[in-house]
């Protein structure tokens, strides 16, 4: 009597084996189920219109317990076919009663139900949960990726705006604005020319020191272009070469066509764009300069190199002037007419510009060295025994005066090596350079557009995964609810076989 109240605990994973070991079911029950499934498929083709039947047959694997409910419904719909002996003449009722009898033979229905319960608990429900978790993970990944792309977009936009700001353009019509900015060069050069007289003291100090130390032979050979420009200003190259003003100046026009934006700059940038550290190197070899009047000694050496030595914040576009096609046009004496490169101002001529920079660097190096020696040996040059016989101009110089000269020279070096001036100078002398510069800026802008497009695709992916997860959640709830019903039906059926003893299937759907 007491055994009747002792519960029977069965673990879900061991339920099929438990039924076989207790001789409730046979081990080879699958072939019988195949025959039953065929009969069910044939029977559901001829069913009466009923809401309960439609609900049972919708999206559900029909098992023995469903068949019992269908028979209960058919008792209502097929009541007219019942005879005096309580039997039904309806073929529908006969088919489903036959299916139930086949299920009950050897308790095949119990083996099938146990297998369905194990499959739902071990595979079906965990699989749906994994799909939902994967969708949620992808949504989080899309959020993270969108944030990264937004930062990338802002960084590229700031980089583009910063480059445009340094070049003094708005960036709306890049090539046109770059060309228009070249018209500001004469004004910039004029301002620099006004500061040339301030270099006179530094140049005079350097020449006097060289004359004292090396003799008169070096007096005229040192920094010739710098001395000429201090005295005469930013003249034409013709006047520097021939030491006389030309009768007429035929300044070469800028060979840059005013093309519409977008005609030549359509570029496929692909998916991988590397905007790493970029460096500008410009090389003018002396062999590129050819003058019709013969060989002229510029006093600057054989190799001419244009480079930006400001050391400050500069725009670096990775554009080689050799690739850009910058050429120094031939010039010469044509009856006192300055044409070609001879008509260019000394600041504007690539060759004389570099010669001027070299002279400045030479004076700067000298002043730095003298300042170091003066600070190490005393407050002025009078303390140096070797300068006692020097002219008074050298002897009266102090560390303060030399420092002032050095500051003046360094200011001029900074002005002429200004990154914006550097690019405008190269743009003026090369159509290809301005094209390459415009393309480089557009590459930066294209990264902004690419980031925006990728953000749109990422948002679409996030919406797709969200919709998939939203569709899977009702399916998961449905499977869990039906599995709970199936588990309770199995427990009740087993309990009947043990005279009503309580049956507990452990580790079942309740753990999901």
Automatic annotation (TrEMBL):
Record-linked Pfam families: CDK5RAP3
Coiled-coil segments on the chain, per record: 128-155
Keywords carried by this UniProt record: Coiled coil
InterPro entries (alphabetical): CDK5RAP3 (IPR008491)
Any one annotated GO CC term: endomembrane system
Keyword Coiled coil: yes
GO BP terms in the entry: regulation of mitotic cell cycle
Keyword Coiled coil tagged: yes
Record family assignment: Belongs to the CDK5RAP3 family.
Name this polypeptide is given: CDK5 regulatory subunit-associated protein 3
Species lineage: Eukaryota, Metazoa, Ecdysozoa, Arthropoda, Hexapoda
């Amino acid at each position: 009597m007491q055994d009747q109240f002792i519960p029977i605990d069965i673990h879900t994973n061991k339920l099929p084996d438990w039924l076989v070991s207790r001789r409730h079911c046979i081990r080879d029950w699958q072939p019988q189920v195949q025959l039953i499934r065929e009969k069910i498929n044939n029977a559901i083709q001829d069913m009466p219109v009923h809401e309960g039947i439609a609900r049972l047959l919708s999206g559900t694997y029909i098992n023995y317990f469903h068949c019992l409910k269908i028979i209960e419904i058919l008792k209502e719909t097929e009541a007219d076919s019942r005879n005096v002996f309580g039997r039904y003449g309806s073929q529908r009722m006969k088919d489903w009663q036959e299916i139930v009898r086949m299920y009950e033979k050897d308790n095949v229905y119990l083996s099938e139900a146990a297998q369905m319960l194990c499959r739902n608990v071990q595979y079906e429900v965990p699989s749906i949960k994994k799909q939902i978790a994967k969708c949620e993970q992808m949504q989080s990944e899309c959020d993270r990726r969108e944030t990264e792309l937004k930062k990338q977009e802002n960084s590229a936009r700031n980089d583009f705006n910063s480059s445009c700001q340094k070049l003094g353009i708005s960036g709306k019509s890049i090539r046109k604005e770059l060309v228009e900015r070249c018209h500001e060069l004469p004004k910039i050069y004029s301002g620099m020319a006004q500061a040339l007289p301030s270099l006179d003291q530094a140049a005079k100090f350097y020449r006097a020191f060289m004359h004292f130390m090396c003799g008169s032979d070096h007096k005229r050979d040192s920094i010739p272009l710098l001395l000429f420009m201090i005295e005469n200003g930013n003249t034409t190259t013709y006047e520097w070469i021939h030491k006389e003003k030309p009768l007429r100046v035929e300044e070469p026009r800028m060979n840059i066509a005013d093309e519409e934006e977008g005609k030549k700059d359509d570029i496929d940038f692909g998916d991988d764009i590397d905007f790493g550290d970029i460096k500008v190197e410009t090389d003018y070899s002396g062999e590129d300069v050819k003058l019709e009047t013969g060989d002229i000694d510029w006093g600057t050496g054989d190799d001419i190199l244009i480079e930006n030595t400001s050391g400050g914040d500069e725009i670096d576009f990775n554009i080689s002037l050799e690739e850009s096609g910058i050429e120094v046009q031939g010039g010469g004496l044509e009856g006192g007419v300055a044409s070609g490169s001879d008509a260019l101002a000394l600041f504007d001529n690539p060759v004389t510009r570099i010669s001027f920079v070299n002279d400045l660097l030479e004076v700067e190096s000298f002043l730095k060295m003298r300042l170091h020696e003066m600070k190490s040996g005393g407050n002025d040059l009078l303390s140096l025994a070797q300068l006692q016989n020097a002219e008074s101009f050298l002897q009266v110089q102090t560390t303060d005066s030399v420092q002032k000269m050095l500051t003046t020279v360094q200011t001029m070096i900074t002005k002429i090596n200004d990154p914006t001036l550097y690019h405008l100078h190269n743009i003026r002398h090369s159509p290809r350079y301005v094209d390459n510069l415009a393309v480089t800026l557009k590459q930066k802008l294209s990264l902004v557009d690419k980031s925006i497009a990728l953000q749109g695709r990422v948002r679409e992916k996030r919406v797709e995964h969200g919709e998939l997860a939203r569709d899977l959640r009702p399916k998961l709830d449905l499977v869990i609810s039906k599995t709970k019903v199936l588990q309770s039906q199995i427990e009740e059926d087993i309990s009947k076989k043990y005279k009503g003893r309580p049956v507990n299937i452990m580790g079942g759907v309740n753990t999901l």
